Amino acid sequence: MLTIFYIFAVLSVLGALGVLFLRNPIHCALSLVGTFFCLGAIYVMLNAEFVAVIQVLVYAGAIMVLFLFVLMLLSSKDSEQYVNKWSVGKILAGLLSLGIFIQIAGLFTANELQLGSKGEYPLEVVEEVGSITLIGRLLFTDYILSFEIIAILLLVAVIGAVVIAKRRFQ
Amino acid sequence: MIPIEHILLLSALLFIIGVLGVMLRRNVIVIFMSIELMLNAVNLSFVTFARSLDSMTGVVFIFFIIVVAAAEAVVGLSIILSIFRTRKTLNIDEFNLLKW
Amino acid sequence: MSQIWLVPAFPLLGFILNGFLGKRFGTRFVTFVGPLAVGMAFAQSLVLFFQMLEAEGNVLNEHLYTWIASGNFEAGINFTVDQLSGLYLLIITGVGFLIHVYSVGYMKGESGYYRFFAYLNLFVFFMLLLVLGDNFLLMFVGWEGVGLCSYLLIGYYFEKDSAAEAAKKAFLFNRVGDFGVLSAVMLIFLSFGSIEFATVNAEASTRLTEGGTLVTAITLLLFLGATGKSAQIPLFVWLPDAMEGPTPVSALIHAATMVTAGLYMVARLSHLFVLAPFTMNVIAVVGATTAILAATIAITQTDIKRVLAYSTVSQLGYMFLAMGVGAFGAGVFHVMTHAFFKALLFLGSGSVILAIHHEQDMRKMGALKNKLPITYVTMLLGTLAISGIPFFSGFFSKDEILWKAFSSPFGSPWLWGIGFLTAGMTAFYMFRMIYLTFHGDSRVDSHVTEHVRESPLSMTLPLMILAALAVIGGFFGVPHVFHVIPNGIEVYFHDFFAEIPAGHGNVSTEWTLMILSVVFALFAWFMASRLYHSGFEIASGLRSKWEWAYQLSLNKWYVDELYNSLIIQPGRLLSTHLLWGLFDQNVIDRAVNTTGAVARSVGNTIRPLQNGLIQNYALIFTLGTFLILWYMT
């Protein structure tokens, strides 16, 4: 179990690094899809099957396809300039990111990591009822308002996208 | 059981790579992808915390995050499309009109 | 339940209907609503009046709600009807109603007909608020409100420069007075801890020492307010200019009701004022001086409305003379009779002005008595009343004031003498007006002459009713010496005003003085008929003989010029050179410009930071995150 996790973890980091370092944007996108798949696998290991499924369906399937579409549609010829020259800003960006990582990692690995009280859905309950059932129940009871709002958001986004992207005829 | 520190570290690492991508890459779409990566890193920590706290709230949150991410991707990409129509480039350094 | 609130509610409703819907619904709607609102208020006032007479202590109170409650300061929307406000209610709504009806005829065909009635209703509302309020704050709301309506109505023909100027002038002069009222109210709150009239009147003698500095200051400040509103020296110059407004406005606001607000305040606070003998003397002297000054000006004016305006100032001076000598009852009595005959005279003059096509110059009138019979008779009755011809209303009230000015412990023969002279001059200039307007040869423009018609019934009916009141109104307060019927005004106001020590003088003196003033008035009438009935040889002879006096009177004692050179010009110089040239330009403007320059230079310095490169922003964003995390761990 642990070994499988480490494999997926390493693979996902590699995919992320691919986004950061590959020149061709299409390669970047594909590498990102790989990361998403790995993350989906990790979600399964964490007993979050529903999340894993929509991760693969929505992220890897829909959103990334959209990215690829746009990339191919635009097919920018200007070569993606990767950081060949080391400017001060870029060094600073690296150092700052490193600093933030160290701080977050320090927080997460601290011995006195405060996690708060336990909730009402231990592993046995989730396995017995099923995580999809539980999420559905929560979405349509406690979070029904947010659920409706998010639906409207999607609708607005769709309309907005059409309005913004359509060609304007003079 | 996987130690949660390790999963959290993974999430932090992915997040930082996303941050670096936003700051270092020039292609707008790649920057966009880096943002998606950061969102996923956060999702991962949400799931981790939800599991270790025996709670479902984090998972429900992810549901919302993914929807927002989808909406954002759609609108963002259409903006990029219309910018590309006028500027014929994806280089973010060229998109610098919005100043002063 | 007495339902006092209904009285102001009707005119307020009228204002809202006329103001917001009048334009859309047209003239007939406005004609219906405007007078009806005031008529309903009058009906309710009558009911309240009789309820008040039967009520215990002759007081009706009504608490609507608490307006302001802060610490130990409390002001409520409380209405009180007592002897004083009851009488004022009847005057305001009664005379107001008649003038509304009159306006229907007078304002016919004017543009902004609805606006006129809306303002007029609003004025009645504020005036009712002024007299009904049981505390200073509510009274002050009404006080300011009537000032506003006065401003709006004087400037009714706002496209005319002179009207706009007159409106501004009235407003500014009233502000000077309002300063006094506000300061006085604050002082009263400091010393009484309350601003209710009842408390102030009841506790005045215990809280304040008689003749002390504080009470003198309070009363003098209040009186300053009264001089503004009621057009006394030194703030009287706005009233004659206020005649730029339509004539019904002059009748209602600038003769019958609003200008008596100052008197109302003094009468309302009689218990406070008697504690300050110095103020009482000031009031009496100012009143007497105003009375005679305005009378001397009125003698030579040629504009019919100006004659009446100065006459109003003069009569208001009379009333203040009464207040100043402690004859509060007599003063209020004169307010009432004056409301009748002065409204009548103004409305009559309006009728004349309308008949000869908006000509106000008496030199272009004459011989109108056959063409305007109703106007002539009613105005003649009003003139007889104001001149103090026996058994007309003005005779009783004026005589009461003169007698009190002579006999009261606050009075003196000098004050009586001034009042006596003024009374004679009043008779003179009023009959001069009558003769110039209605008698003699016609000097009306020939092409106007054939169009001269008596006014419609809506205008003449109010004239007739007011004339009847002007004739009989005086029997409300027949002096004791006649021994016929008791003095109604004293019975009515028993125990209401502050007691003042009994005066000196006896019955035979009173008879003597009364006969003297009657004889003097008749003599003035005779003189006026000699000088102005037909042919003006004697008048012009006198004029050339006393040219300087004539000029002095014609130019209103140069008071406007005096104010101009004493206050306005120095103020202007001060403003241009010191305040504007030095302070405003060098301090304020420079401060403002410096602020702008600093902001601009700072902006110029840090502007490159905003270079439009999103990745730069992201870098700075990350730096911020880093710092926050660093700070938090």
UniProtKB/TrEMBL annotation, chain A:
GO cellular component terms given for this protein: plasma membrane
Entry EC number(s): 7.1.1.-
Coiled-coil region list: none
Superkingdom classification of source: Bacteria
Enzyme class: translocase
Presence of the UniProt keyword NAD in the record: yes
Keyword tags: Cell membrane, Membrane, NAD, Quinone, Transmembrane, Transmembrane helix
TM segment ranges: 6-22, 29-46, 52-74, 86-108, 143-165
Molecular functions (GO terms): NADH dehydrogenase (ubiquinone) activity; quinone binding
InterPro entries named in the record: NADH_UbQ/plastoQ_OxRdtase_su6 (IPR001457), Nuo/plastoQ_OxRdtase_6_NuoJ (IPR042106)
One Pfam family hit: Oxidored_q3
Membrane topology classification: Multi-pass membrane protein
Catalytic activity: a quinone + NADH + 5 H(+)(in) = a quinol + NAD(+) + 4 H(+)(out)
Cellular compartments annotated: Cell membrane
General function of this protein: NDH-1 shuttles electrons from NADH, via FMN and iron-sulfur (Fe-S) centers, to quinones in the respiratory chain. Couples the redox reaction to proton translocation (for every two electrons transferred, four hydrogen ions are translocated across the cytoplasmic membrane), and thus conserves the redox energy in a proton gradient.
Family membership noted in the UniProt record: Belongs to the complex I subunit 6 family.
Protein name: NADH-quinone oxidoreductase subunit J
Native source species: SAR324 cluster bacterium
TrEMBL record, chain B:
Keyword Transport found: yes
Membrane topology: Multi-pass membrane protein
Catalysed reactions, as listed in the record: a quinone + NADH + 5 H(+)(in) = a quinol + NAD(+) + 4 H(+)(out)
UniProtKB keywords: Cell membrane, Membrane, NAD, Oxidoreductase, Quinone, Translocase, Transmembrane, Transmembrane helix, Transport, Ubiquinone
One Pfam family, short name: Oxidored_q2
Top-level EC class as recorded in UniProt: translocase
TM region(s), chain numbering: 6-24, 31-53, 59-84
GO MF, one annotated term: quinone binding
Location(s), subcellular: Cell membrane; Membrane
InterPro entries tied to this protein: NADH_UbQ_OxRdtase_chain4L/K, NUOK/Mnh_C1-like
Coiled-coil residue spans: none
Gene Ontology CC annotation, any one: NADH dehydrogenase complex
Main location: membrane
Any GO BP: ATP synthesis coupled electron transport
Keyword Transmembrane helix: yes
EC number: 7.1.1.-
Family, as annotated: Belongs to the complex I subunit 4L family.
Main function: NDH-1 shuttles electrons from NADH, via FMN and iron-sulfur (Fe-S) centers, to quinones in the respiratory chain. The immediate electron acceptor for the enzyme in this species is believed to be ubiquinone. Couples the redox reaction to proton translocation (for every two electrons transferred, four hydrogen ions are translocated across the cytoplasmic membrane), and thus conserves the redox energy in a proton gradient.
Assembly and binders: NDH-1 is composed of 14 different subunits. Subunits NuoA, H, J, K, L, M, N constitute the membrane sector of the complex.
Identification of the protein by name: NADH-quinone oxidoreductase subunit K
Source organism per UniProt: SAR324 cluster bacterium
Gene transcribed to yield this protein: nuoK
TrEMBL record, chain C:
One Gene Ontology molecular-function label: NADH dehydrogenase activity
Annotated ranges, domain NADH-Ubiquinone oxidoreductase (complex I) chain 5 N-terminal: 67-117
Pfam families: Proton_antipo_M, Proton_antipo_N
Segment forming the signal sequence: none
Main subcellular location of this protein, as a coarse class: membrane
Biological process annotations from GO: ATP synthesis coupled electron transport; electron transport coupled proton transport
Keyword vocabulary terms for this entry: Membrane, Transmembrane, Transmembrane helix
Record has Transmembrane as a keyword: yes
Membrane topology reported for the UniProt record: Multi-pass membrane protein
Transmembrane parts of this sequence: 6-22, 29-50, 87-106, 113-132, 138-158, 179-202, 214-237, 249-267, 273-295, 307-333, 339-356, 376-396, 416-438, 459-478, 511-528, 614-632
GO annotation, cellular component aspect: endomembrane system; membrane
Subcellular location: Endomembrane system; Membrane
Superkingdom of source: Bacteria
Native source organism of the sequence: SAR324 cluster bacterium
Domain NADH:quinone oxidoreductase/Mrp antiporter transmembrane: 134-426
Name used for this protein in its record: NADH-quinone oxidoreductase subunit L
